[in-house]
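Section 5: illustrative case.
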């Protein structure tokens, strides 16, 4: 083999080695696996800010721009970044089969605290937490605990009662409905008290419930809403994630009213939505992160409700003042211990 040929082959080998090293280095720069959409920063998806001494990661089952449940997690992560100076990262739209993989990757990368946004992360967190005793893990709406594993829950049932009161006073047909994803305990706790709230102010009213089987399926939720509206329901409580917009559209088309969930969703249908049951996910995210940062973390189920300023009602719109006064009066009685509501916790 001639010298020129050998020299040319040597250059090719060097080039290939250089390219391989560059690719390997590039693969190690991501904050998590490719199991879902990633972002180092909640705001931009690029590099995050913060001191870097305290690192917090979030894993979401759905899209963080859903205007509801997953969006509230991103807002909570943003607050942790801005208020506690933490370095943050998140992965959204993670498939159940990849939960443990993504959580484990964040733990290996040295994150001090990892949130799983929803009870569906119970088993994955329970599996991964013992592998990383120096990392803290939190499941939102979960029911698992351990030395370095905690859950948080809202006081389910509080919001159902007061939104039920509103629906019972606003309905003109004496028929109201609920569009919900599934009959899980955290969902049915508020549906049960919703029925109680309706009955308290309007004994003649009936409540119908439709389960879609999905938190995200907009067409299916819209069809479920249409079915309820076609039987005369004229106020619907909407307890979904991104599917909510489909229900609001159906209510708007039928000239019916709707009640949102988790965040103030009035902007999605200003003339249709009369209020929303608010769950301040941001409050519990910051509180849990503060506990970890201060060394006060406990492996237990942490409950957040109206008394902790974690749940409330959004401002009322498109309703008579007497409806507002009666519901707000009931809330004051509840906080003062004069009204008892059967909550889940």
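Designed sequence:
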């Amino acid at each position: 083999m001639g010298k020129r040929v050998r020299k040319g082959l040597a250059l090719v080998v060097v080039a290939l080695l250089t390219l391989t090293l560059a690719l390997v280095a590039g693969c190690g720069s991501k904050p998590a696996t490719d199991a879902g959409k990633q972002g180092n920063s909640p705001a931009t998806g690029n590099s995050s800010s913060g001191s870097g001494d305290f690192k917090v990661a979030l894993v979401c089952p759905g899209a963080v721009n859903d205007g509801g449940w997953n969006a509230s997690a991103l807002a909570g992560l943003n607050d942790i970044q801005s208020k506690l100076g933490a370095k943050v990262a998140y992965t959204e739209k993670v498939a159940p089969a990849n939960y443990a993989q993504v959580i484990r990757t964040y733990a290996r990368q040295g994150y001090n605290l990892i949130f799983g946004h929803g009870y569906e992360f119970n088993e994955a967190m329970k599996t991964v937490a013992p592998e990383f005793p120096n990392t803290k893990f939190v499941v939102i709406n979960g029911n698992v605990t351990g030395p370095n594993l905690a859950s948080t829950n809202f006081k389910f049932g509080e919001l159902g009662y007061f939104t039920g009161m509103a629906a019972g006073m606003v309905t003109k047909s004496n028929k109201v409905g609920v569009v919900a994803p599934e009959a899980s305990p955290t969902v049915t706790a508020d549906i049960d008290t919703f029925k109680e709230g309706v009955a308290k102010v309007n004994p003649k009213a009936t409540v119908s419930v439709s389960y879609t089987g999905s938190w995200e399926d907009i067409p299916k939720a819209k069809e479920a809403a249409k079915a309820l509206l076609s039987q005369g329901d004229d106020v619907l409580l909407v307890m979904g994630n991104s599917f909510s917009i489909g229900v609001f559209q159906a209510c708007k088309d039928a000239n019916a009213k709707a009640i949102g969930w988790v965040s103030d969703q009035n902007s999605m249908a200003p003339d249709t939505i009369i209020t929303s049951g608010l769950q301040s996910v941001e409050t519990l995210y910051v509180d849990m992160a503060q506990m970890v940062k201060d060394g006060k973390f406990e492996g237990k189920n942490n409950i957040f409700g109206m008394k902790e300023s974690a749940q409330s009602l959004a401002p009322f719109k498109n309703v008579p003042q007497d409806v507002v006064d009666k519901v707000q009066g009931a809330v004051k009685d509840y906080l003062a211990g004069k009204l008892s509501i059967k909550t889940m916790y």
